[in-house]
Amino acid sequence: MTTSLEQSTPALAQDDPEVAVLEVARRAREASRALATATRATKDAALRALADALVAATDRVLAANAEDVARGRAGGMSEGLLDRLALTPERVVAIADALRELAALPDPVGEVVRGSTLPNGLRLRQVRVPMGVVGMIYEARPNVTVDAAGLALKSGNAVVLRGGSAAASSNATIVEVLAEALAAQGLPRDLVQSVDAWGRPGGVALMHARGLVDVLVPRGGADLIATVVREATVPVIETGVGNCHLYVDASADLDDALPILLNAKTQRVGVCNAVETLLVHRDVADAFLPSALAALGQAGVTVHGDAATLAHAPQGVATVPATEADWGTEYLSLDLAVRVVDDLDAAIDHVRRWSTGHTEAILTRDLRASERFVAEVDAAAVIVNASTRFTDGGQFGLGAEIGISTQKLHARGPMGLAELTTTKWVVHGDGHVRP
Amino acid sequence: MTTSLEQSTPALAQDDPEVAVLEVARRAREASRALATATRATKDAALRALADALVAATDRVLAANAEDVARGRAGGMSEGLLDRLALTPERVVAIADALRELAALPDPVGEVVRGSTLPNGLRLRQVRVPMGVVGMIYEARPNVTVDAAGLALKSGNAVVLRGGSAAASSNATIVEVLAEALAAQGLPRDLVQSVDAWGRPGGVALMHARGLVDVLVPRGGADLIATVVREATVPVIETGVGNCHLYVDASADLDDALPILLNAKTQRVGVCNAVETLLVHRDVADAFLPSALAALGQAGVTVHGDAATLAHAPQGVATVPATEADWGTEYLSLDLAVRVVDDLDAAIDHVRRWSTGHTEAILTRDLRASERFVAEVDAAAVIVNASTRFTDGGQFGLGAEIGISTQKLHARGPMGLAELTTTKWVVHGDGHVRP
């Protein structure tokens, strides 16, 4: 075990993970009480102090990170993952700046969502309040540790973190730095805690801490999210899996369609709002597919096409005959499933069958087609005549983004700070009894 | 098996419950598509047609209900439960009228929750849409069958019902009548289905139908709710358990306090917003407790008091020394735990320790005390100077009530029709690509 891990691991680490993690969650809940009634000024000052502390601790953080990177390299981690794991002085500054940007955002807590005076004179207000304790389960990148802590604190919550073991030393040191900075601000250091010291069983215990943890947000690949959804008894907000479709209707503006397709597929391939399947109305297959497939090929995309699609593929474009598995795959790579459909109904049916409910787009100049697609497709975001890549908290103007929810409860689509809060009904009477 | 059960049980009932219930859920999902884009006029006409059909089928419903009542009586069911189970022509009319009242409520679907035009010209709207398929798991009372179906349909959802076995014949017949009436309206009969034919395993299968059922609402006792929360992989909205407190502060208006206490405890004892623990500031224990305990005794309430409380109990009041178990008990009966506390902090600490997060009330004339109680108590509803009995969808003016959520995700407190919907982001562009 590394030095930085030892420093952050209390005596409890030897204990039963279930017991130890419940104790962490209990301390988080107690600490959250201090933050629930804190003013925005207090929270923002704390966020700025955390940013300063992180930058001041750059050497410590980089030393811990170097341990992770060395362990990763020894374990044969790919260069791409090593790059995501590695911190530099510039990256530490960028992570700290993100905390300062959070401080500049409005505080969701205290917003009066609705209110009225009832006929009997009772005064009713529904007010936004913090959840209490937010759990975050995520993978390798150490910047998520800071990001998650910042989002939780800004929205008035304590946070319990479970990061990937690949970044264990970095995360342990970062949590330590943040906790020390909180204490220096007169806030409980238990507002930011990690359960990494208890490994995988600690993560499972966190998923079962119902009543102590109010919400769990998994951030990472499909496997991680599926595990959390299956295991957790704590309420979960499911994020991120995006098998997104782009449908080019018979009446689409084909001059617009090509740049939108390339943007949706190739601007960033590893993200959940990248397009994974292209559907083309058969009436425009001749006019659109040859140039579209050529451009995709040029961009390095492998086309997984049905027979009608492959018949239009020019020489030199990498193609694979599509199987049903392709319709259900979120590639997150330079691959695209392509299918020619008979009409709008067939397109909607395909989307309804294979969508993960993230983002679905139609390109059309036909008003009725756009309205039917919007009404009948069931997804967090339905986009008309634009790239799927716009489904994003930043792009939507929501400020900081916790993730993109693909479930229907509580939050759907890009989640901002408000989604880490709940509401409380406050009722004022004057001796009222119910008749 | 009774005739009415046989009529409503398709061939699938002999199959594996897991397979059969998933098929029911799949049909519900398909049927929900027809309702998702239905206008309010269509839905309201359907609700009125269901009401008419129920009244027209009174004889059939009462015959099935008589089977349940006979079975219940043979099985030794208490008179109270038999009364809740039994239907009469008048009760059928009342159940039908509730559907007509639902038809008169505004439609939550289509509401634009927020919207804006982004700097790049993308037009953004967040629109309220149906969930899709709502699952409802509940206990004996057959009126809940109609109620749940009506709430789901009004909010544009298909519903899959799992009722208590005690009302199996009544529920099967009611579902049949509703499905026939839907078909007569040109709507899919699969919009209202029951999985009662597959018994307890069918209920469990419904809890596991993730991806087909969008939300599960358990309605019933604490055991039922705990089971659903533990078992379900479908997102659950937890309802109802209310260990509610009433705190009489040092500065309370004691003339108001007595009627509020009696109202909160005795107006209806079996409901989740009835008070279960009374906390009294020690400075007013002498002035308040003797008369309060006498009045409670008069009303038939047994007082489970701490030593300081019992010292104030007049002759003839039924008292029991309170143990810690009393602080954690939702009696739902003519029992009340009573404790004298040293100050506001002790009251808040007691509430934070034992609250189920339903409704907590303070009686005070001190502004700071009321503000601290409101800010520091973590519950769906915090009430100042009024009875806990006001936490109710009808009382809050929300129209129909699905239940009272005690969780923090999605819905907290009384849930109206809007809580059976989700939202969809609709984005309109004109060839936009993300830079």
Automatic annotation (TrEMBL), chains A, B:
Keywords associated with the record: Amino-acid biosynthesis, Cytoplasm, NADP, Oxidoreductase, Proline biosynthesis
Domain of life: Bacteria
Keyword Aminoacyl-tRNA synthetase found: no
Subcellular location(s) of the protein: Cytoplasm
Main location: cytoplasm
Catalytic activity line of the entry: L-glutamate 5-semialdehyde + phosphate + NADP(+) = L-glutamyl 5-phosphate + NADPH + H(+)
EC number: 1.2.1.41
Pfam families according to UniProt: Aldedh
Gene Ontology terms, MF aspect: glutamate-5-semialdehyde dehydrogenase activity
Pathway recorded for this protein: Amino-acid biosynthesis; L-proline biosynthesis; L-glutamate 5-semialdehyde from L-glutamate: step 2/2
Enzyme type, top EC level: oxidoreductase
Ranges of residues in domain Aldehyde dehydrogenase: 20-299
InterPro entries: Ald_DH/histidinol_DH, Ald_DH_C, Ald_DH_N, Aldehyde_DH_dom, Glu-5-SA_DH, GPR_dom
Its job: Catalyzes the NADPH-dependent reduction of L-glutamate 5-phosphate into L-glutamate 5-semialdehyde and phosphate. The product spontaneously undergoes cyclization to form 1-pyrroline-5-carboxylate.
PANTHER family from the UniProt entry: DELTA-1-PYRROLINE-5-CARBOXYLATE SYNTHASE, GLUTAMATE SEMIALDEHYDE DEHYDROGENASE
NCBIfam families according to UniProt: PRK00197.1, proA
Family as reported in the entry's similarity comment: Belongs to the gamma-glutamyl phosphate reductase family.
Protein name: Gamma-glutamyl phosphate reductase
Organism per entry: Cellulomonas iranensis
Gene name tied to this protein: proA
